[in-house]
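tool_call: predict_structure(chain=1)
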Amino acid sequence: MSKEKPAGVAAIPKAWDLPAGPVTYIGPDLPGIPYMTTYEKGIPAPLLELARKKCKALRALIVPVDAIAAKLTAAKTGGTAEYALYRKAEEFAKGEG
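tool_result:
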């Protein structure tokens, strides 16, 4: 039995599982998506679209509210994964702005 997905059906990778409850976007300003915006009722489609199709680094910058301080510190600390992802997001933002 084949485990192939029917045409037109795409699985959302585990990396796209978003935390329950409010989240904050800690990435650089994007058109219509400012730095440190908190979403309490889901993430807006434009941000998800950008993160899924144009810059996957943006996904790592959508964090639970209770993790903001730790993630911001990591994003400003050279050598961390968050730092590298933030830099990728900055490069992307320069082209989108």
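agent: Strands lie at 23-25, 37-39, 62-64. Proceeding to next step.
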